[in-house]
Structures are given as C-alpha cells and as structure tokens.
Amino acid sequence: MDLGIGLPNAVPGATGEQLIEWARRAERRGFSSLGTIDRILYDNYEPLTALAGAAAVTERIGLCTTVLVGPPRANSVLLAKQALSVQALSGGRLTLGIALGAREDDYEVSGVDYQGRARLLDAQLETIRQTWAEDRVGPLVDDRPRLVLGGHADAAFARAARFGDGWIAGGSGPEEFAEMAGKARQAWKDAGNEGELRTMALGYYSLGDGAEENARAALGDYYAWLGEEIAGYIIAGAATDLDQVRQYLSAYEQAGCDELILFPCTADPDQVDLLAEAAGL
Description:
The chain is of the alpha/beta class. The protein is 48% helix and 16% strand. The protein is built from eleven helices and eight strands. The longest helix is centred in the middle third of the chain and has 18 residues, at 117-134.
C-alpha cells in the first residue's frame, strides 16, 4: 500500500510558506502523494492552486485532490483546463479526485442548486472527459490526469465505475472502507471494465506535542457543521501517537487499500517528519 500525506491546505491559518516547505519535505521523505481537501466557504486554499504551487517545488511526488467538490465549479470546461494545466506543470503527476460534497452552504455561496448536485456532477464528468479527449483546451499532455471519484452511496460506486479510474473513501475508518471498497469493485466489474479499480482512502493524524489538542481544534472546527457527536467521532478517529499510525497503516493495507493519504491537524512542517518516522519512511 502506498502512503500519501495531505497538504495542510484546509488548516486555518496555514501560510503559503508552510505549504511549500511541507511539499518539499514530503517529497524528500518518500511519501507517494500530496493530497488536498476542499471546501468553498471556509478558510482554506483552493486545491488545484495549492497543488500547482507544490508542483513547482517537487519532481516525483504525486498530486491528488482528495477530493475536489465538483458541481460548485460550474464551468466544467474551465475545470478540465485547470486540471490539464496542473498535469502539464507537474510532468503528469495529477490525480483529479472529485465528488459531490455535502455542505449546502458551499453550493449556496456558489449559486449552484444543491438538490440537483448528482445530475450536475454526472454532466460535469462527461464534459471533463470529453474535453480531455478532444485536445482543444489547455496544454497538450502525454497522459490525461487520473480520475478518481468519491462518495459512499451505491450511486457513487456506479459513478466511479462509469467515469473513473478509481474510487476514494472519506475518513470512515478501515472496516467501513473494506465494506465500501467491495461494493465499488463489484460496480466496476458489473460495468464491464478491464483491469482493477484503484482504491484510496483518507484519514487524519496529529503527532508530537499537543497532538490531541491540535486534532480537537482543527477537526472540531472543520466538521462542526455535522454536530458535536459526529465531529467527536471524527476527532477520536485521528491517529495521535506512533502506535495508532502503525495500526492505521496495517488495517488499511489488510483491507485492500491501494493508497492511504493521512491529513494533518496543524500546518507545522515538522508533522511531515513525524509521520514519516512513524511509518518507517
């Protein structure tokens, strides 16, 4: 199983200098990918913009939006061009992970219909794939970005089988991942696709001094909209010591995950080294 690390693009107060140093360290320490998470109405860096910055200071590490909230970006041709631009700037390292998103306020502030978001995403994916195939918009690339779909419903698994190269789970834990990944693989097989569906997952970690406090602050703020009980469940699921990190890695690997991306709860670049040491990189 590959191990990626999330950029702190959604940690409130993160500076551009921290994101750039984070990307450099992540490449040096041997992580497979840099991930980004997305919100519209929040104190975060836009994912493709953050990855373009990371591309400029790295040469090997993969770049993933895990995931981008698709439908609020209503100009799908422009989104396809932005993805192609990062693909070209990075020398072919982009994975475009995309999903519906669950925050109504992200849709409201974008002037996009929340109730029709599934239909909008399907149309968006059609447009993105067509735009990439036609080679009329954006820089020419040898290979289009890998396309990965997120979501936990049957419709999401079918969408990944129809449009994507892979499927990604949110921070649901390894047992839930294993169950959902089985459904995603079955949908892939039922659609008559060749080869294997790539499966990915994300989780959270916080290590070193103040680990639990940092997890509580960052995740409590980001997930406050879900209510105290669910936000508390997510906070409790963050790996806050070396043993928990290793248990996470073992459990996801046994569940058949191809790549796990762990996201930080603070923007301190020392967190890159702490995770690398915990994972034996």
